[in-house]
């Protein structure tokens, strides 16, 4: 397996990206080639810190970078020599089997969508992201690639999310839910009501409409929504979690009594912080394109990059794309 | 001012509703009549626990109740003698100036929408709910009354939310934001992109698109969205907050060291719980109808009911509806 890594993508690039890639190249036997794509000088500078680098780790120069705040589609078109564009080119040209980036999400979606073909039967590629909940994480699809979706697209997202949940997260028969406001079939907007009917008639293990409460109580393995709503769920969850974490810290440092208490109970906060961290999940795949593209969080550290490369490897191994095309050969009207 | 209270609405009705109403009748001088609408036997039973009840507190019998899980519109049409229907009737017949309910939100929206007229210039009534954030609370409109909205409706929601923020929450020139996924004007779905253009050209203090992060950092006083997205923001926030609170409690009781720490730091958790409680805000108005309808949380206790009646009183006093009609006389195309 050959992985192209966008060495310049993410808040801590290239340092953390290079560090995670070095570890992945050393540990993962099945990875036969790992190409760091980005400013050769900067990347080689980071590599100097490591001894005895494996031969399979190479550098592919790209002179430009799409910044985190840039408008994605325009940036990808304009910056032909950006690290994300070049990494997508390597995959397109058959020189790599998968791409990992922790950079601008929109740019990754744009690069993969513009340069690669879509899988047969897929109207739009979608981002499948893994979110921690009470017992075990669930997959949210689409997490932000498509703002306006048809019921048919939501059906395809369900199929793709289900395959991902089964193959990568190991759920035998994933429970699929449709994000809505109210559990009854009649609840929701026009698009979700039609999607509900389609999903109900499909052979999937469809548990119906789910609200946010259901997601965090672990009622589903796959939560389906358009990218607007999915992104709102994702960002609201992150914001409230951060708001809470900061607030707790502030309140606990308000006087010496609370500080002492917080010190005694420290283990609780360490456990929580660890489980909330997205590092373990590594990255969210863009599903529905004819190659593998894994998108890491902008704040990815070396561990997150390592796990993102691991996810890319598993997506290749499980032939997720073949399974998706197979299942979408026949679709409801 | 005469207020009709749905005595049977809410998880703790009629007990807490009656208790909050008794307090309101005693404290609020401007409330000249407070009608408890619901099962006479049950309501009088609760009233027996209080001594020296003011004369302005009366009971209006209604034999039915719309339950929390019932499909709203159907239930309101079918149960003509339900407490929420009767309370809305009293307002319609001019026997009360405002309605408060902590019952089924959809039923309240349906009763007010079906029985009352809309304000001139309003296409759809919307729920304005107050959400705590870092510094001070913000208004989210629509929190769930309308799932499919036009850009014009979103503009009207902004006008109504702004008046509510200014008159009831006392913000001199409320900052209005449009809930979207990305701050740039081009981000969002078709509806929000058009709404963005309309709001930008309006004389409002429009700060542009806002993401969840901005909401909880206190960047806006009014957050505008359709009812589907608004409800997702609201429910996700509540779910993550509950998930967090329960998780902290679990982690802190895992061993004696943590328990001791939690005990020392207890003040921090008490403060947080108090500020997170929605009791202080009392209820969310349904704006855009020709009367006042305040909808409390299903879990409202006596204090929340008391504050809900206070909000109803303030909405009447500030003539919110006149201001809304005035401002919507001229609307952008």
Automatic annotation (TrEMBL), chains A, B:
Its EC number is 2.3.1.274. It is found in: Cytoplasm. It comes from Kiritimatiella glycovorans. Signal peptide: none annotated. The lineage of its organism: Bacteria, Pseudomonadati, Kiritimatiellota, Kiritimatiellia, Kiritimatiellales. Pathway: Lipid metabolism; phospholipid metabolism. The gene is plsX. It catalyses: a fatty acyl-[ACP] + phosphate = an acyl phosphate + holo-[ACP]. It is an enzyme of class 2 (transferase). GO terms for biological process: fatty acid biosynthetic process; phospholipid biosynthetic process. The keyword Cytoplasm applies. Keywords: Acyltransferase, Cytoplasm, Lipid biosynthesis, Lipid metabolism, Phospholipid biosynthesis, Phospholipid metabolism, Transferase. Its main location: cytoplasm. GO terms for cellular component: cytoplasm. Homodimer. Probably interacts with PlsY. One of its GO terms (molecular function) is phosphate:acyl-[acyl carrier protein] acyltransferase activity. Catalyzes the reversible formation of acyl-phosphate (acyl-PO(4)) from acyl-[acyl-carrier-protein] (acyl-ACP). This enzyme utilizes acyl-ACP as fatty acyl donor, but not acyl-CoA. Belongs to the PlsX family. This is Phosphate acyltransferase.
């Amino acid at each position: 397996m050959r992985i192209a890594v966008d060495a310049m993508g993410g808040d801590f690039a290239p340092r953390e990206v290079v560090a995670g890639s070095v570890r992945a190249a050393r540990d993962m036997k099945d990875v036969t080639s790992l190409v760091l794509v980005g400013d050769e000088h900067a990347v080689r500078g980071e590599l100097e810190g490591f001894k005895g680098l494996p031969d399979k780790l190479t550098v592919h120069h790209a002179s430009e970078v799409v910044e985190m705040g840039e408008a994605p589609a325009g940036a990808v078109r304009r910056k032909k020599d950006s690290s994300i564009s070049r990494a997508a080119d390597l995959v397109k040209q058959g020189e790599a089997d998968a791409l990992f980036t922790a950079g601008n999400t929109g740019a990754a979606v744009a690069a993969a969508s513009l340069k690669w073909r879509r899988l047969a039967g897929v109207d739009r590629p979608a981002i499948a992201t893994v979110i921690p909940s009470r017992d075990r994480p669930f997959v949210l699809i689409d997490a932000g690639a498509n703002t306006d979706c048809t019921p048919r697209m939501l059906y395809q997202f369900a199929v793709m999310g289900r395959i991902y949940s089964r193959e990568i997260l190991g759920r035998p028969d994933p429970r699929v839910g449709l994000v809505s406001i109210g559990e009854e079939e009649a609840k929701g907007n026009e698009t979700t009501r039609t999607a509900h009917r389609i999903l109900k008639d499909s052979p999937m293990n469809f548990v119906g409409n789910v609200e946010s409460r259901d997601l965090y109580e672990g009622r589903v393995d796959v939560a389906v929504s358009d990218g607007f709503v999915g992104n709102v769920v994702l960002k609201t969850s992150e914001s409230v979690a951060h708001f809470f974490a900061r607030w707790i810290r502030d309140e606990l440092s308000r006087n010496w009594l609370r500080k002492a208490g917080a010190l005694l109970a420290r283990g609780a906060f360490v456990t929580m912080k660890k489980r909330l961290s997205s590092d373990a999940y590594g990255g969210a795949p863009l599903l529905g394109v004819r190659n593998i593209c894994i998108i890491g969080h902008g704040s990815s550290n070396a561990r997150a990059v390592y796990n993102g490369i691991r996810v890319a490897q598993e997506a290749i191994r499980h032939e997720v794309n073949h399974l998706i095309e197979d299942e979408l050969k026949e679709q409801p009207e």
